[in-house]
Design goal:
Blueprint (H helix, E strand, L loop, with lengths): L12 H6 L3 H4 L2 H21 L4 E2 L8 E3 L5 E3 L6 E2 L24
Antiparallel strand pairs: 1-4, 2-3
């Protein structure tokens, strides 16, 4: 069994935001593109996948950015598949200092 990764030129979003040359190139248009891309990825995982997937570790280190500032969501090590016919609570997982918000309906 093999795991194949796509080469991502700029690395993680943390490197792009806080690195030496990355923050100089990251204008507002690029920032909006990154936010929209991650929102689209999360919407796809939660609404379009069957069963739905909860990532549980969306951090700057787990968002990779290519040369065109297109984001890629990475590191699904703590992801969880949810059953579509039940209400599920997940245990705390992910990077230290991050916890997904709780939504009450």
């Amino acid at each position: 069994m093999y795991l194949v990764y796509e080469h991502i030129d700029r690395g993680s979003l943390r490197k792009v935001l806080y690195g030496d040359e990355g923050s100089l190139e990251l204008n507002w248009r690029s920032r909006v593109k990154i936010v929209q891309g991650i929102a689209h990825a999360l919407a796809y995982l939660h609404s379009d996948c069957s069963p739905p997937i909860v990532h549980r570790d969306v951090t700057l280190n787990n968002i990779l950015v290519d040369s065109e500032f297109e984001p890629r969501l990475a590191d699904f090590g703590t992801a969880k598949l949810l059953s579509t016919n039940t209400t599920s609570w997940t245990s705390i997982a992910g990077s230290y200092g991050y916890m997904a918000p709780v939504i009450y309906i």
